[in-house]
Design a protein that fits this description.
Blueprint (H helix, E strand, L loop, with lengths): L3 H14 L3 H8 L15 H5 L4 H23 L3 H16 L12 H11 L1 H18 L2 H18 L5 H17 L1 H9 L13
Helix pairs in contact: 1-4, 1-5, 2-4, 4-5, 4-6, 5-6, 5-9, 6-7, 7-8, 8-9
């Protein structure tokens, strides 16, 4: 019989992951609806397009934090709960109930989940994103490279059990699928680069 604890864990992690910090923070800052600019995304990269670097950094920290907190709390109830929370938190960010299931790409939340789930793998994935973003200045490309690399890092750092690999592969696949439009723009040469100036389209 399914464990009620796992259902409760999935629900609570989903709800935590679904908090749209990018949208809430930009509205509190008087910058309007972040979904109306740039890519229409609620994540830190699109918040950066408001020209407010500080707000983008706060969004990034909060989105990472909610993924990490979900896993760290669930871990107190065992590895299965942590695995369920990891996937549920990312799904919450991507498909939040409050925004008619139209959320973000899940990159920062996935980073937080990975850092809490197995910090060496998470750190390697984050560093991969940073290096790729610095070299090519495409947030989406950096996210895709980090997502593809994360199962390799999981294996290298000893997460070779079936459950752990399933979690990492599932989250990596979710992130890649959420970047379908970005992949097409990258292929067409129309993807927007990361900008630290004022507003960018």
């Amino acid at each position: 019989m399914p464990d009620p604890l796992l259902y409760a864990t999935a629900l609570l992690a989903y709800l935590l992951g679904s908090i749209p910090f990018g949208l809430l923070l930009t509205r509190l800052a008087g910058l309007g609806d972040v979904r109306a600019i740039g890519s229409g995304n609620i994540g830190a990269t699109n918040v950066l397009r408001t020209g407010n670097i500080g707000l983008a950094l706060v969004t990034l920290v909060f989105d990472i934090g909610k993924g990490a907190v979900a896993v760290l709390i669930a871990r107190q109830f065992g590895p299965h709960a942590a695995a369920v929370a990891a996937i549920s938190a990312v799904l919450g960010h991507m498909f939040p109930l409050w925004l008619k299931f139209k959320g973000g790409k899940g990159v920062a939340t996935a980073a937080g989940v990975f850092l809490a789930y197995a910090w060496p793998m998470g750190l390697a994935a984050v560093l991969t994103w940073i290096v790729a973003a610095v070299i090519w200045r495409y947030s989406s490309l950096a996210a895709l490279i980090a997502a593809v690399s994360s199962p390799v890092y999981a294996w290298l750092f000893g997460l070779r059990d079936a459950e752990s690999m399933m979690v990492v592969l599932a989250i990596a696949l979710l992130v890649i699928l959420r970047h379908r439009a970005n992949i097409q723009r990258l292929l067409n040469g129309t993807e927007t680069k990361i900008s630290f100036g004022k507003k960018s389209a």
